[in-house]
């Protein structure tokens, strides 16, 4: 029925055009082409319809009629390709829908809100370079004055990193009730990660415990990009020291606990390598250049500083994030 | 940038020269080569030359970790040489430096 009325429309269009060619008919033909594509009318069906339309308009010379057999055969190949593209497009849409579900699920692995503690501001910016992020962070409340935090980078991006993240999250959740120091936490996580991920994957992590009574931060590092410590009294940034093998690299790795104490105005910046992988034209941003940017933004609320630094680095990289980006700013008030 | 890779073998010893970018796009080819050498029966030593490597991300580090683990399991020595400062920094931060033999005097 649809085809028949379409065919009538097509005959009318063709007749009008042959009686006096005009731009209007060409425009209608374009629109009809889009309509036919949207309804998956194959090129060979259209060729047949054109042949039938010619027959309705008058006597068709035999050689023209015969030529349609050749054209139809050729169009069948175009039709096959068209159906194949259509099938891939449907599959792609299905995968995108599945990816959106996975992305939403991944979001549930990350904390919904930033906790508030006395005398301490916490700022956070975490942006995925692609749909799925390989960056992980978490705040684990111990009581009203103490919390643990972790920031981690899982090799690669995409689905594999997201699956590894869920394993990491549940491992930390199962260990959080135990009275473990940061070094012991990393020790346990290293064994869990090493047993459960592909040999070519690894996780870098900083795990620490902050006590707002003393404003002390005890932490351990597993192959993670060093953070920064800003001393307000000196007005200077320095690397947050600490080193240890990435999780999953070697089952016997040991980790060392370090401690820093924050004085009023001091700032602790924890990050993933997406921050330092910022590309400025053809060159990567050096840590001393990053410090200059941090110096320019220090002294304001932790969240404001985190936002400002992200905007600066995004502009420097010409709005193209190469890697997942996570920065946590802790500022003692 | 593309990946450059050249392997020369002398009996059970293999030299793999890498250049260009080692990232998520080029990594699978490097991994396939290194893992194939590491799992070759009787392989005694794999030396990877990184002098011409322009860029390496965590995918590259993961490949070296996998190759190192496979070599360890198969009793094969795994070494790297001529790391650029940027790659050397990655090796140091991730702790890989402590687990992979870096040929001395040729890391700069």
User: Which CATH class of the largest domain in chain A?
Assistant: Alpha Beta
Shape of chain B from CA axes? globular
Looking at CATH, the homologous superfamily of chain B is STAS domain
What string, H for helix and E for strand, traces the elements of chain A in order?
HHHHEEEHHEEEEEEHEEHHE
CATH-derived topology of chain B: Transcription Regulator spoIIAA
CATH superfamily of the largest domain in chain A: PPM-type phosphatase domain
Order of helices and strands of chain B: EEHEHEHE
Q: CA-to-CA gap between the ends of chain A?
A: 75 Å
Name the overall outline of chain A: elongated
Overall mean pLDDT score of chain A? 91
Let me know the number of strands of chain A: 12
- Beta percentage of chain B is 25-35%
Structurally, how many domains make up the residues of chain B? 1
Q: Biggest sheet of chain A, strands in spatial order?
A: 1-12-9-6-7
| Biggest β-sheet: strands ordered side by side in the sheet of chain B | 1-2-3-4-5
Named at the architecture level, the CATH assignment of the largest domain in chain A is 4-Layer Sandwich
Uncertain runs of chain B are none
Output the radius of gyration of chain A.
31 Å
GO molecular function, one term (chain B): anti-sigma factor antagonist activity
InterPro entries (chain B): Anti-sigma_ant, STAS_dom, STAS_dom_sf
Protein name (chain B): Anti-sigma factor antagonist
Family (chain B): Belongs to the anti-sigma-factor antagonist family.
């Amino acid at each position: 029925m649809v085809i028949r009325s379409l065919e009538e429309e097509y005959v009318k269009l063709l007749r009008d055009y042959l009686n006096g060619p005009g731009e209007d008919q060409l425009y209608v033909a374009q629109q009809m082409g889009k309509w036919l594509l949207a309804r998956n009318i194959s090129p060979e069906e259209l060729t047949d319809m054109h042949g039938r339309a010619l027959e309705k308009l008058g006597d068709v010379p035999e050689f023209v009629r015969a030529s349609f057999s050749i054209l139809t055969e050729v169009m069948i190949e175009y039709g096959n390709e068209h159906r194949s593209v259509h099938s891939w497009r449907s599959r792609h849409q299905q995968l995108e829908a599945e990816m959106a579900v996975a992305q939403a699920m991944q979001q549930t692995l990350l904390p919904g809100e930033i906790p508030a503690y006395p005398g301490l501001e916490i700022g956070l910016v975490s942006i995925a370079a692609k749909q799925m992020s390989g960056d992980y962070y978490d705040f684990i409340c111990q009581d009203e004055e103490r919390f643990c935090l972790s920031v981690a980078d899982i090799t690669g991006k995409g689905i594999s990193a997201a699956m590894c993240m869920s394993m990491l999250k549940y491992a930390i959740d199962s260990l959080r009730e135990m009275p473990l120091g940061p070094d012991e936490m990393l020790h346990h996580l290293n064994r869990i990660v090493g047993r459960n991920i592909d040999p070519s994957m690894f996780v870098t992590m900083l795990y620490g415990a902050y006590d707002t009574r003393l404003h002390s931060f005890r932490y351990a590092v597993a192959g993670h990009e060093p953070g920064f410590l800003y001393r307000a009294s000196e007005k200077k940034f320095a690397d947050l020291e600490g080193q240890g093998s990435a999780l999953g690299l070697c089952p016997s790795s040991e980790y060392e606990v370090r401690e820093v104490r924050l004085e009023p105005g001091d700032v602790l910046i924890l990050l993933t390598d997406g921050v330092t992988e910022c590309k400025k034209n053809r060159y990567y941003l050096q840590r001393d250049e990053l410090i200059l940017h941090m110096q320019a933004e220090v002294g304001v609320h932790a969240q404001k500083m985190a936002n400002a630094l992200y905007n600066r680095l995004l502009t420097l990289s010409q709005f193209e994030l190469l890697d997942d980006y996570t920065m946590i700013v802790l500022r003692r008030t | 940038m593309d990946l450059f890779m050249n392997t020369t073998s002398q009996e059970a010893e293999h030299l793999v020269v890498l250049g260009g970018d080692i990232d998520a796009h080029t990594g699978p080819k490097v991994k396939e080569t290194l893992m194939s050498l590491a799992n070759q029966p009787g392989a005694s030593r794999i030396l990877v030359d990184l002098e011409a490597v322009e860029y390496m991300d965590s995918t590259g580090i993961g490949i070296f970790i996998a190759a190192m683990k496979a070599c360890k399991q198969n009793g094969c020595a795994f070494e790297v040489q001529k790391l650029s400062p940027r790659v050397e920094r990655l090796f140091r931060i991730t702790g890989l430096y402590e687990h992979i033999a870096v040929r001395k005097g040729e890391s700069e």
